[in-house]
Amino acid sequence: MNDQSGGFPQNGAVAPFTDPGLPNAGLRDLVLAARAKPQSQLNPAEVWRVIRKWWWLIAGIVFACLLAAIAISLLITPEYRARTTLEINREGVQPVQMGELQPMQSFFQDRDYINTQAGLLRSRALAERVVRGLNLANDPNVVNPEIDRSARANVAANIIAGSISVEPVRDSRLIALSVESTSPDLAARVANSYAETFIRSSLERRFEANSYARNFLEQRLGTIRSRLEQSERQLVAYAQRQGIVTLNVNSGSDGGARTEQPIDALSLVALNNALQEARANRIASEQRYRQAQMNPTTTQAMNNQAIQELEGRRAQLEAEYQEKLGIFQPNYPQMQALRTRIDTLDREIARVSRSVSSSLRSEFEAARIQESELQSRVDGLTRNLLSLRERSIQYTILQRDVDTNRALYDALLQRYKEVGVAGGVGMNAVSVVDRAQVPTAPFRPNIPFNLVIGLLTGLVVGFGLAFGLEWMDDTIKTPDDVTSKLQIASLGVIPAAPKGSSVQDDLSDSRSQISEAYQSVRTALQFSTEHGVPRTLLISSTRAGEGKSSTALSVAHAMASLGASVLLIDADLRKPSFRGPSSQSDGLSNLLAGSEKFEACIHPTSQEGLFLLPAGKVPPNPAELLAAGRFAWLLEHVAQMFDYVVVDGPPVLGLADAPLLASHCEGTLMVIEAGAIRRTAAINAVNRLRAADANIVGGILTKFNATKSGYGYGYGYGYGYGGGKYAYAEGDKPKRQIELLKSA
Question: pLDDT tens-digit profile of 453-473?
Answer without folding.
Answer: 999 999 999 999 988 887 777
